[in-house]
């Protein structure tokens, strides 16, 4: 199979288009013919070695954890799916080696669900990691009716899901931080926009004089401190960017593969409550360019690779 690979920790310049053996398909796994793969910041961070202290790695690495494609073969005791099923998933395993930037990937059934009928391949591939992150963050702090939610970096990959899923969970209001060019986009997905940067707390207070109930940190920096100055209950802040969030009185979330959560997201999509803005789709061979765009931190929605 053709795949994008990296032979040692490095940068986008070290990615190469390689011919590799087809993946083995273990018990409880299926082989997926990849139609599209989502690009996430963690992909290039893995390749740079940032996760080396916590995850086993075997080179060459094929990056990528987000996938949308068609089941080509099933492994032993993998009866949840059949050949020909259209699936999407967060195909993260317990080690880093054979990811989704490839023509084929083997994925545990616990990481997959049936693709939403409402989404094309690119939208489906852009959903799993970011959508699960947003959903699991909101559930961690019990988001629901009566809550006002502040979403930091609300126009980004995770933030745009956070806005829409919060709405689907029935919260009263969503306030989202973004640059002014993304304010109309935020309004279109159900958020009241506010410009990030110096003076953010005052601008949020102008919209919500009584403060907010929940804050979602999808950007890092001093966001937790700013959020806690606005929260009615300071422990209802979740960060995916600051591992010390728990020590600061909040919660840190590292997204987990979860088939039931994927099914929930697919249901929202098919009910018209969830959309995916694909900022740009690159051919597989141009994964390095996709990483460079991701590294700017200025994209709206998702970046994907087509296979």
TrEMBL record:
InterPro entries the record matches: ADH-like_N, Chloroplast_QOR, ER, GroES-like_sf, NAD(P)-bd_dom_sf, Quin_OxRdtase/zeta-crystal_CS
One Pfam match: ADH_N
Give the Enoyl reductase (ER) domain ranges. 10-305
Which Gene Ontology molecular-function terms are recorded?
oxidoreductase activity; zinc ion binding
Q: Which Gene3D superfamilies match?
A: Medium-chain alcohol dehydrogenases, catalytic domain, NAD(P)-binding Rossmann-like Domain
**Database matches in SMART domains:** PKS_ER
Q: What is this protein called?
A: NADP-dependent oxidoreductase
Query: What is the scientific name of the source organism?
Result: Streptomyces triticagri
């Amino acid at each position: 199979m053709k795949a994008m690979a990296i032979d040692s920790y490095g940068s986008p310049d070290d990615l190469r288009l390689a011919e590799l053996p087809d993946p083995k398909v273990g018990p409880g796994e299926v082989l997926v013919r990849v139609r599209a793969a989502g690009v996430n910041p963690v992909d290039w961070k893995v390749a740079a070695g940032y996760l080396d202290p916590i995850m086993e790695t075997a080179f060459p690495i094929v990056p990528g954890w987000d996938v949308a494609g068609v089941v080509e073969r099933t492994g032993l005791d993998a009866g949840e799916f059949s050949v020909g099923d259209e699936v999407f998933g967060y195909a993260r395993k317990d080690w880093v080696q054979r990811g989704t930037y490839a023509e084929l990937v083997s994925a545990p059934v616990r990481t997959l669900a049936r693709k939403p009928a409402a989404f094309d391949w690119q939208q489906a591939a852009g959903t799993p990691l970011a959508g699960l992150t947003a959903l699991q963050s909101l559930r961690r702090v019990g988001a629901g009716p009566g809550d006002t939610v502040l979403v930091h970096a609300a126009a980004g990959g995770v933030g745009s899901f956070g806005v829409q899923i919060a709405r689907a969970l029935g919260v009263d209001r969503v306030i989202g931080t973004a640059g002014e060019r993304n304010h109309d986009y935020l309004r279109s997905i159900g958020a009241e926009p506010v410009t990030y940067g110096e003076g953010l707390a005052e601008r949020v207070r102008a919209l919500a004089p009584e403060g907010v109930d929940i804050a979602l940190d999808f950007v890092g920096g001093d966001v937790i401190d700013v959020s806690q100055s606005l929260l009615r209950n300071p422990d209802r802040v979740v960060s995916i960017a600051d591992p010390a969030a728990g020590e600061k009185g909040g919660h840190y979330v590292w997204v987990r593969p979860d088939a039931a959560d994927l099914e929930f997201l697919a249901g929202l999509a098919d009910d018209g409550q969830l959309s995916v803005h694909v900022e740009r789709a690159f051919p597989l061979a141009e994964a390095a360019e996709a990483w460079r765009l991701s590294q700017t931190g200025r994209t709206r929605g998702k970046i994907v690779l087509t296979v």
